[in-house]
Specification:
Layout: E1 13-17, E2 20-33, H1 34-38, H2 43-46, E3 57-69, E4 72-76, H3 88-94, H4 101-107, E5 117-119, H5 125-128, E6 132-134, E7 140-142, E8 148-152, H6 153-161, H7 172-181, E9 184-187, E10 191-194, E11 197-201, E12 210-215, E13 220-223, H8 246-263, E14 265-268, E15 277-284, E16 287-292, E17 296-297
Parallel strand pairs: 4-5, 5-8, 8-9, 13-14
Antiparallel strand pairs: 1-2, 1-17, 2-3, 3-4, 6-7, 10-11, 11-12, 12-13, 14-15, 15-16
Length: about 300
């Protein structure tokens, strides 16, 4: 089986955005159907970019991003959560790893209770699942009890009302515990969370998905989440069958890529199984390529 990511490690990878250092934590792994991951693109084309297993699934990481700014500790994304959340059929379908974000945090000496903000790009289980955990009494509770969970208000309302093509990806055990605990911070549109870290709507995959911007004095990066989950999705039409608004996703991805070239913005692709940090280069008017950007590794 293909190794995805580093797993929980004392020597994680890091990305520098100017003087901002972001630690890349392994939130787990999963495998999804390659055809669904590339929508209208036929397999003879997408298989040149990524290899599928015998069940036609491709590997995906669930990278989470940890940083400190303004005296606050911020975690972006939480992965799918503990494997105990999923039944045997789901484990077989998705090939989950047996570790989750809490394991990776403990490996670098960070306690979940020390997190001040958790930013979720959207509320699908592979991004929000690590935000809650079992309490040992048959209930689920926030994994990060002292954090404010930052989500777009429209995304939250769509999730709890079942406004989705795949209603099963918005799971009650990932949502209700946050509402009961009163830890939600619902935002509408652009919002700064801490100095140098802000969110911005990037609709397409869901109606209210948000990207996360990281900015220092002279450098910028953005996590576009499932607007462009991996480097294999750089083509404007290389979008997922899971996308709720496919044309809007394609249009917004084109704008993102163009702006990344013009303003030298680094892309952080959290589900790419082999690399997270990328620089964008233009091939012609509406075609782009990616080049690996530096990623540091603790020694």
């Amino acid at each position: 089986m293909t190794q995805i990511g580093l797993g929980p490690t004392k020597k994680p990878r890091r990305v520098s955005v100017g003087d901002m250092r972001i630690t890349l934590l392994d939130g787990g792994e999963l495998w999804l159907d390659g055809g669904a991951m590339f929508g209208i693109i036929p397999k003879p084309l997408w298989s040149k970019k990524v290899e599928a297993d015998d069940a036609n699934r491709i590997p995906l990481s669930m990278t989470c991003f940890l940083l400190e700014s303004g005296g606050k500790r911020v975690l972006v994304e939480t992965g799918s959560g503990t494997i105990g959340k999923y039944d045997e059929k789901e484990r077989d379908i998705f090939r989950f790893a047996d570790y989750w974000i809490e394991d990776s945090l403990h490996a670098v000496g960070v306690e979940p209770a020390s997190i001040d903000f958790v930013i979720l790009t959207h509320l699908h289980f592979d991004h929000a699942g690590g935000g809650t955990k079992p309490d040992g009494k048959g209930n689920y509770v926030p994994t990060f009890p002292n954090a404010r969970y930052v989500v777009q208000r429209g995304e939250w309302e769509d999730a709890v009302s079942g406004h989705a093509v795949m209603t099963g990806t918005y799971r009650e055990e990932n949502l209700a515990p946050l509402e009961r605990a009163g830890v939600l911070s619902l935002v509408s549109g652009d919002a700064e969370i801490v100095p140098g870290v802000s969110v911005t709507p990037l609709p397409g995959h869901t109606r209210w998905q948000q990207g996360v911007k990281f900015e220092s004095a002279d450098r910028r990066a953005i996590l576009p989440a499932d607007l462009m989950p991996t480097s294999a999705h750089v083509g404007l039409r290389y979008n997922m069958a899971y996308d709720l608004l496919p044309h809007e996703n394609m249009t917004n991805k084109g704008r993102l890529l163009q702006e990344s070239v013009e303003k030298e913005v680094t892309l952080l692709l959290g589900q790419d199984p082999f690399n997270t940090s990328w620089n964008v280069r233009r091939r012609d008017r509406d075609r782009f390529t990616l080049e690996s950007a530096p990623v540091e590794r603790d020694h």
